[in-house]
From TrEMBL:
Single GO molecular function: amino acid:proton symporter activity
Major site of localization recorded for this protein: membrane
InterPro entries xref list: AA_transpt_TM
Topology in the lipid bilayer: Multi-pass membrane protein
Stated name of the protein: Solute carrier family 36 member 1
Cellular component GO terms held in the UniProt record: vacuolar membrane
Region (Disordered): 1-39
């Protein structure tokens, strides 16, 4: 299947060894500025709508379900305001990253830049940093891989645990959704057995290496997650207790817990440059970015606030754990799990674009496909074994923070610094 998708689909410029920039710039020095970024595949790239769908899919994941608890830790007023501020900062960093990549790709005559490229070429602008530019690339790629594969680990746990809850509480599930029963029957199988069951399905999914062909699945996943979120909103809004006596601001000692969960929720910066690189018309990516992140930030604030108001001090780590044990709301877990299943491929794509091309470049064309698929299988198996206990996102949060807030700012700073040799 992978061969049909990628090798017969024309040149795949996501692989640096196949990029035309290795041989020559894509534009002459006198070419108009507006044509500098028409670089990847024209008709073979992702459309405006496909890119928007991928951006939404890359940001709406497991972190969204933990935002009601995050708002509880920050307070009913301070929490939403903090989410708004973090959304603005995240969008600014994403836009800064894209602008730096545009400037440096035009300056270096490259058709597109990866995260590592942006840091390496940016550091070459400063004399005392230029000698360490290669290490800058390696450090960023390392953190990016830790972040993206960390997301994949959490997704593996989320997928197996939610399906496990539905399967093993089937005998106690009723059609009465007015009985707020959330007790879970003692499980009879280990979660790792469910992970083993899903392993071949995830391996098959990551064999899809072209974002254009992943877009229909992302659309279906977005629809399934949208339906599940509508049901969650409905239950919360119809069960709001009156009067509302919740603290407007949480305790200072709990605010770092809010910050960690909220940072984890804004998980889409890792897919920004890959999506922009594969877009038919990259000049429209800024519109996609502002539109998509506006939707995401609004969703984060509304679900976090409404979920906290609906369940109050009883809100749990994932809002799905507060839903009643009836078939309608058990379906919410299944629908959201399907969305997370598709999201795995999108987050995995970022690490694959970093790790696979250098390995493929070292082998001949005869073994390229075998090496490519073998690395994908190995990475999926790795994420199934290196899962965090209990499915907590904490292990990935430090690298998420360093990538989302630190890297775009540093890239912008060194890129704007005058060259001093």
């Amino acid at each position: 299947m992978a061969s049909d998708i990628n090798y017969q689909d024309g040149p795949d410029f996501s692989r640096r060894d196949e990029s035309p920039a290795e041989d020559e710039p894509i534009h002459s020095p006198g070419s108009p500025r507006q044509t500098e970024y028409e670089r990847i595949g024209g008709r073979t790239g992702s459309s405006f709508l496909q890119t928007l769908i991928h951006l939404l899919k890359g940001n709406i994941g497991t972190g969204l379900l933990g935002l009601p608890l995050a708002v509880k830790n920050a307070g009913l007023v301070l929490g939403p305001l903090s989410l708004l501020a973090m959304g603005i900062v995240a969008v600014h960093c994403m836009n800064l990253l894209v602008r730096c990549a545009h400037h440096l790709s035009a300056k270096m005559g490259k058709p597109f830049l990866s995260y590592g490229d942006a840091v390496e070429y940016g550091m070459e602008n400063v004399s005392w940093l230029s000698r360490h530019s290669l290490w800058g690339r390696r450090v960023v790629n390392m953190f990016l891989n830790i972040t993206q594969l960390g997301f994949c680990c959490v997704y593996f746990v989320f997928l197996s645990d939610n399906v496990k809850q539905v399967v093993e509480t089937a005998n106690g599930t009723t059609g009465n959704c007015h009985n707020n029963q959330t007790a879970v029957i003692v499980p009879s199988y280990d979660s790792r057995l469910y992970m083993l069951f899903f392993l071949p399905f995830i391996i098959v999914l990551v064999f899809i290496r072209n974002l254009k062909y992943l877009a229909p699945l992302s659309l279906v996943a977005n629809i399934s997650m949208c339906v599940s979120l509508v049901l969650i909103y409905y239950y919360c809004l119809t069960n709001i207790p009156y009067p509302i006596n919740l603290p407007l601001a949480g305790r200072g000692v709990d605010y770092p817990l809010f910050f960690g969960t909220a940072i984890f929720a804004f998980e889409g910066i890792g897919v920004v440059l890959p999506l922009e690189n594969k877009m038919q018309n990259p000049r429209n990516f800024t519109t996609v970015l502002y539109l998509g992140m506006g939707i995401v930030t609004t969703l984060y604030i509304s679900l976090g606030t409404i979920g906290y108001i609906g369940f109050g001090e009883h809100i749990r780590g994932s809002i799905t754990l507060n839903l009643p044990l009836c078939w309608l709301y058990q379906a919410v877990k299944l629908l959201y799990s399907f969305g997370i299943y598709i999201t795995y491929a999108l987050q995995f794509y970022v690490s694959a674009e970093i790790l696979i091309p250098p390995a493929v470049a070292r082998c001949g064309p005869r073994w390229a496909l075998m090496v490519d698929l073998s690395i994908r299988v190995a990475l999926v198996v790795l994420t199934s074994f290196l899962h965090p206990r209990g499915g907590q996102p904490a292990p990935t949060q430090p690298s998420c923070f360093s990538l989302k807030m630190f890297k775009p700012s540093v890239s912008s700073t060194v890129e704007r610094t005058p060259v001093r040799r």
